[in-house]
Amino acid sequence: MCDGCPIYWATREKDSLKQEKMRTAVAQLCSERYGLNYGLKYTAEDITDCDGCRTKGGRLFSGCKNCEVRICAIQKEVENCAYCNAYACDKLREIFVTDPSAKTRLEVIRSTL
């Protein structure tokens, strides 16, 4: 899923001004999608570098460290949820409610399997 993640894209952006704009946009998106449920308001500074959900020893966005879906994929040793035999589980369906684009990205991957 990293290829569709705006935090991953911002990490890879070389232009510092463009990267700051991307981080600001991601912070707004995170605040809208996740902040309301937890009383959080994200800022561009909260959007830390991330080398992807499957990284081992690399940089990881702070909001993803305890992600149940990420932990499950690692335990099942699948590239991402699209490759899982239990697709789409209850945990993932909860994500789809707040992030419908995640479902779209995973469906595209599943269509190529």
SSE blueprint:
Blueprint: H1 6-12, H2 16-38, H3 68-76, H4 90-98, H5 100-111
Helix pairs in contact: 1-2, 4-5
What does this structure look like?
- The chain folds into two domains: 1-64, no CATH class; 66-113, no CATH class.
- 53% of the residues lie in helices and 0% in strands.
- It has five helices and no strands.
- The protein has helices spanning 6-12, 16-38, 68-76, 90-98, 100-111.
- Helix 1 (6-12) packs antiparallel against helix 2 (16-38).
- The two termini are 15 Å apart.
- The model has no long low-confidence stretch (mean pLDDT 86).
Order of helices and strands: HHHHH
What would you call the structural class? mainly alpha
Helix content: 40-55%
The average pLDDT is: 86
Q: Which geometry do the CA atoms define?
A: globular
Find the count of extended strands (DSSP E, 2+ residues). 0
Number of domains: 2
Q: For the record, give the distance between the C-alpha atoms at the N and C termini, rounded to a whole number.
A: 15 Å
What proportion of the residues form beta strands (DSSP E)?
under 5%
